[in-house]
Amino acid sequence: MTWNPTLFIFGEDESCNIGEEITWSCNSQQPKIDDTVYLIRVGQEPRGIVARGVVTQESFDESDFRDLAQQKRKIRFRFTDVRMDQSEGSLPLLVLQHAFPEQQWSPQSSGIAIKPDYETELSQLWTANKGKHSLDIALRWCYDNKDSNDAWFQKYRATCERAQHLHASGEVLDDDLRLLWHSREKEHPIASVRSNGLSGSEVEKNRSLLKELTLDILRDPSPAKYDTVCRQWESWKEQGLFAAVYRAQINRFFAAANPTDFICAADNKFPEKFGKQLTQAFHIPLDVKGSWGQASKNIIDEVTPLIAEDWNPLKRNIAFWNLYQKTKKITDDELEVAAPENTMTTETPIGTNTILYGPPGTGKTYCVIERAVKAAKPELHDCTDREILKAEYDILLSAKRIRFVTFHQSFSYEEFIEGLQAKSDDGQISYDVKPGIFKQICNDAERGTTTAGSPLAMAIEQFKLQLELENRMTLTTKKGNSFGVEFHGNTTFRAFPEGTTNENLGKGYPVSIEHIWNEYQGINQERIYNPSYVKAILHHLIETYDVPAFDAVTASAPEPFVLVIDEINRGNISKIFGELITLIEPSKRAGQKEALSVQLPYSGETFSVPSNLHIIGTMNTADRSLATMDTALRRRFDYIEMMPDYTPLNGMVVKGINIADILRTLNDRIEYLYDREHSLGHAFFMPIAHKESDNDKFDELASIFKKKILPLLQEYFFEDWEKICLILGDNQKTDTQLQFVTQQAFNTQQLFGASYAADQYADDRKVFVINDHAFSTPEAYLQITTGSSPTSDNQ
Prior knowledge:
Elements: E1 2-3, E2 21-25, E3 36-41, E4 48-64, E5 67-82, E6 91-92, H1 93-99, H2 116-128, H3 134-144, H4 149-169, H5 174-182, H6 200-205, H7 207-219, H8 223-239, H9 247-257, H10 270-282, H11 292-303, H12 313-332, E7 353-358, H13 364-376, H14 386-398, E8 402-406, H15 413-416, E9 418-425, E10 428-435, H16 437-447, H17 455-470, E11 473-476, E12 482-487, E13 492-497, E14 509-512, H18 513-521, H19 531-545, H20 552-556, E15 561-566, H21 573-577, E16 598-599, E17 606-607, E18 613-620, H22 631-634, E19 638-641, E20 653-654, E21 657-658, H23 659-673, H24 694-716, H25 721-728, E22 741-745, H26 748-752, E23 766-770, H27 772-775, H28 778-786, H29 790-794
Parallel strand pairs: 1-3, 7-18, 7-19, 8-15, 15-18
Antiparallel strand pairs: 2-5, 3-4, 4-5, 4-6, 9-10, 11-12, 12-13, 13-14, 16-17, 20-21, 22-23
Helix pairs in contact: 3-12, 8-11, 10-11, 13-14, 17-19, 18-19, 23-25, 23-28
């Protein structure tokens, strides 16, 4: 059984008790009384099996707790073992995925059967790890299930013992230097380093210095000594003794000198990367901001109380590396999730620029929700549960990672990219540059995260309020030059340098809030305008409002963003996109080999479109033909056609009226008389499915025909009523009471009097009248597909 805490919680403490019975969604009808049930937490970390129980009631239907009108298949089971906390022995998802690779650990479908070959082993794994921390379980599994680890351990231990021998003897041989400082062997006992590390000639030239350094480190292999050695090596580099500060070799040496306090990975960024993994997967708070040496010790100090006391430090370090590699592989593969049983998917891969096009009512806007969520959260690519996708859509929409805009005939470049906005300040009119929705989402995507709610965003808002109260505040640049700061609204501060020879400062020098963000996050710094004022204001914000340093780890993996453009073909594309139409091509985006940028006309800023921004458009082909679309737009988007789908209407019968057959017949006639781009979509008829009684369903059908289908046909055929009658099959009905549209001839004598002489065209003039009675008669709908029958003629 799957449990997503973002959608359902057991109570305030998100826990359940042994012996407690609970009703749970289960798509499968296979569970029988006394079958074993495992509850797996999905959707948020820490993911994995958190409880076991037995079935007490087999499959039955019950109202869904989120929508009482919907029925869901469920079972009841009783908890026999509960391990909600990681310290109680919950089985991590990482272990489950690698230990049982053929099993479907699906985060979407509840009720996936454990494969028979895995039942015993899974039960043993659950039983054996009761009371252990999930991290301890993961580390133990990672070490025990790699054949080469024992051989690595033997070499690793021999190297560490050799280092201790050097400390005891006080004598360092040339072979010792080669092993501990120079060796670049791929199978090095501790860690391999890149080919551009410490060279043999440098070792030979600095043999005495390195021998002295070796003994000095072995006397005190601590984080403090590590920092001292790195500073000393900087000095040696400046003196020309070494070509670089070889941190990988320094890290590896400390790993051999003190494996209790230092991990065995020589990569200088490893503690930061591994610490992020531990924080995400196991909710372990870690401080990895310092040097490699201090960060290594911080990780070990935090992890040690959570794992068994019998861990050998060397085996623990090897397990750290194994766990990092396995977690990294899952992350790189975007956590492939198996599809639920008995389902097939023909999902089209989501591209960077996509347009869903088709006739009205084919579910384009409905499908946008699914596609936008899967673009923003690739780990949900295989999800088919509409409720989960809609919930994620609402979350992403509120977080501004998904944004929605509708094009129309008057929509302009100034609204979409940037434009000038007039404002009055003490009667003086001025104009500020206001970013449009596309520029805003590009800026957020470039940063990799939204700014809303962050410490810097809150500090900027507080600073604005303070300036509104004080009007002007004096700050100082890094060089000691004083300047005044004012805020007149919108997205720019104003700087007024003191002591300038230019007395006419006007509105002062602009300091863009966007550029403050760029400086804070270390991106696009070459584009920053008035950088001395930007840096001074940012320094003031950090110091005054305790803004923490930007997390560069988060910035290195930017989150995907999605811009949804509804009715994209209703706008003037050339007018709206302007020069940016070229930049949205995947190959022209920032970071790509053929990346391009432009200078925006109003702000003068250099602008490019980030690679992590997806654009999804919808296009109604009845509003404008695809053939008449802007060619520049057409070749920069992937087009996915969405035509009427009769499958959802299969089995939908109302008072003998087969809805799918009616829609298919109407569309065949429309395609013959007009074209396929003006078909009627299946979505028009979907509300019928939500009605309970047959009478209510028929009333809904009548309303759809009268208020949606008939007006749309009038628009399609420009009130050519004869063609509309052909579409509805009225020409085949002998009983005029069953015709939705009836024909009546003009009575010219009644209209104009007996003396009126009709002209040669008068006899052809007819009046068409909508027949309300037909909409409330089931036979009228039946004869859309069958025409008149002997039965109806007799009636």
